[in-house]
Amino acid sequence: MLRFDAPSIDENNPLYCPSVTPASYLESLRHKRRDLSTRSRGKTSRNDRFQHSFALILEKALVTDALDSSDDELDHGERVFKRPRTISNSSDESLPAYSYPIPAWELEDEQKQEFWDSVAPGSPGGCEKPMHKKQRRGCFTELHGPPKYERSGHSVQDSSFDVVVKHETLSYSAAPASVVKPRTPIAAGAGTGNNGDTFFLTQRIHILEDELYGPRIGTESPRGLQSFIEVLERVLPGIRLKERLAQLSMLSHQSIVDFLGAHGYLNARVLAIFRTSEIRWITLTESLAKENGLNLCGDILPIFSRPNSFVFLTELSLRDTCVNDFDLTYIQRLPKLSTLLLDNCTLSNEAVFLLVPLKHTLTQLSIGSNPRINDDAVPALLLLAKLTFLSILDTGIQMHGLRRLARTIYDDDRIIDIEIPIACEDYVDHLQNKYALDPRPPLITDPDACRLLSIEALQRNLAAHAARNSNIIATGGKVEMAERLRNILEMRAADMLVRDMILGEDSAEG
User: Fold this and answer.
1) Its domain of life (predicted)?
2) pLDDT-based confidence at 362, cuts 50/70/90?
3) Residue 374: beta bridge partners?
4) Which candidate, 68, 102, 108, places its Cα nearest to that of 85?
């Protein structure tokens, strides 16, 4: 118990400077009053009796004020019984007796017994068990240490703090309200107990099924199409979709997606509904038109990359859209895609290389009107071995890349219908102005035979080609003329392969 009749010193807290509260001062006075009660009456000084009387009056005033503000607690946080008891001072009969509530732990042993007997069960105002002293507020923990101006205490802990580990099990059954779409009405009490766990688990399984296999859209029967159109109406409100679809001559999933595509209604949510349908082709030109300003390929094309999506799709048109090179990664997993139209999409060579994963199914490819695609994209085009149609019209591919493409097609014995840039087509149409198109013996057509010719034979062959093209020089040294003739004959052979590839004919000469 702290004593306030002498200076207080705290060796563990040099900043300790107590500001004595009334409750603390009363505690000190009570302690001193108990000391006085143990002494004999003759040994009690007049100063001690006055101090004892003052303590009783001060305590009564403090307790009365506390009871007015709170019926249960004093300012210092101690439980006080409301039953008043009259305690007289046995040490000084001259002191008056006061009736005031006294905490049970402040009573003497005989008074405690008398007190509990008076509040025993069954007696008026009695209680079942004695009430215990609450922990004082304001005490500090061993971890943080004493407050700046509070006296420190002796720690009874060996460690700085205790760590309590509580394991919690993660629940995967719950899902946001915007995601969970109940397939059946929720019965009363379905969210509690085992039934609730089963319900949420079932809904979670349904969500995973929709993610893996797409939503259930039903069959193409009249009843199935009616419910399917109702779903589309909720996704596309305000366009009188049901009335407009009723005007179609034949109603099916394919005709519905054709109608939506022609009017630019194929957004990401609508396209996701058709994931498991048996549609064969989709046109996204109107839905991704640049002038709309709100359609972004990055929002729509990722739908094609979801598992088990559009497994029947064979044709996809992205003509005149804002497709970027990287967007083509979303269509690499379409298992049956055979026709891909990418005209006027501002693509580059990277886009062509990203199409290589489709080499097992892709048979028709149109990448026209993409001038950023040049001769460097030819190696990727050569890997698309199953192509039967290729359009590179208005691209940056020139005769050098076209000759390489024609040579591989000839060596692999492929048959391909190809549309080439206008500049290359004009070059092929005027081959007779580049060199002698059909040289006759004794003129040669084999480039490897040039090193065996004499100077006269070299001059004779070069002169025949110079007659068609004035830029060819028919004179010079033997080695120089042989190399010049060899280059002309190699170019002629490659150009003939390009011509035959365009015309679809077999070359008469290798």
Assistant:
1) Eukaryota
2) very high
3) 396
4) 102
